[in-house]
Write a structure and sequence with these properties.
Helices cover 54% and strands 13% of the residues. With 263 residues, the protein is an alpha+beta fold. The chain has a four-stranded antiparallel β-sheet with strand order 2-1-4-3. It comes from Amycolatopsis albidoflavus. This is Abi-alpha family protein.
Length: 263
């Protein structure tokens, strides 16, 4: 199937198709408990094939997202065209916009002008679609898996490991946002889960909450995690701060818009 226009740029429909295909693979693996069947004959080969196809689709999706409505890309393209025009190659066609174009505008300033010009014709739905596309472009495949695991609203345990001060208080945080959600999601880089969770919180897709006593067993399991035990070796007196993580309101809305199982 051809996913390119004659000029080589991706369209929003192209991105949606690629997102649906990549998401269907990731969603199928997460929702059917693919990791629970690894002991079946030939399952290792099947799993490697699945992940290879998934990586290929996600790489192509990321490339397309980089091309769709990217103000910095548009600014660089416009600047390049303007430079060619100044050199006498040919005139560049321009459009009257909210922020008028200037000669030799720096790319960052031109990109901001591009965003302001976009805002003229954006309604609520188009603005929401743009926001979700920008968020989607920033996610790694592992982070997408974590968000899928959190999408039903279930809380997962999370802990910070801190140095205990001389007075028994909390000192320097040496490990932040370690969680069992990575293992549940089947991420490829389990040691990066604290960073993944921190990034998802930063994007507003995931929120921290208070400790949930009913998750005691999972907290105990988390304390045996390799990343936690490694940090404990570096600190003489540790203090464990227990929390939970769950999908945020924005995260739930984002997932509803991107959930491949609904496509």
């Amino acid at each position: 199937m051809d996913y390119q226009r004659p000029n080589g740029r991706g369209t929003a429909e192209d991105v949606a198709n690629l997102a649906r295909r990549a998401g269907q693979l990731a969603g199928w693996a997460a929702r059917t408990g693919f990791d629970l069947t690894r002991k079946l004959p030939g399952i290792d080969t099947a799993e490697r094939g699945l992940k290879q196809v998934e990586r290929g689709l996600l790489s192509e999706l990321r490339r397309r997202l980089d091309e769709v409505d990217d103000p910095y890309h548009a600014a660089l393209t416009a600047a390049s065209a303007m430079n060619r025009a100044d050199a006498g190659s040919r005139a560049v066609e321009t459009t009257v916009t909210l922020v008028p174009a200037r000669d030799h505008v720096e790319p960052l300033r031109a990109a901001m002008a591009e965003l302001l010009n976009h805002s003229i014709g954006f309604g609520r739905e188009r603005a929401r679609e743009y926001l979700y596309a920008i968020i989607l472009r920033q996610l790694t495949p592992d982070e997408a898996r974590i968000l899928a695991a959190l999408s039903d609203g279930s809380p997962f345990p999370a802990i910070d490991v801190a140095e205990r001060s001389a007075m028994g208080g909390t000192g320097r945080i040496v490990l932040r946002n370690a969680s069992t959600v990575g293992k549940a999601a089947g991420v490829s880089l389990p040691d990066q889960v604290p960073g993944y969770v921190t990034r998802l919180i930063g994007l507003g897709l995931v929120e921290l909450d208070e400790e949930v006593p009913s998750l005691e067993t999972q907290y105990e399991i988390l304390l045996t995690d390799e990343s936690v035990r490694e940090v404990e070796k570096q600190v003489k007196r540790i203090k464990i701060i227990r929390r939970t993580i769950h999908v945020s309101r924005l995260g739930a809305q984002f997932w509803q818009a991107c959930d491949p199982s609904l496509g």
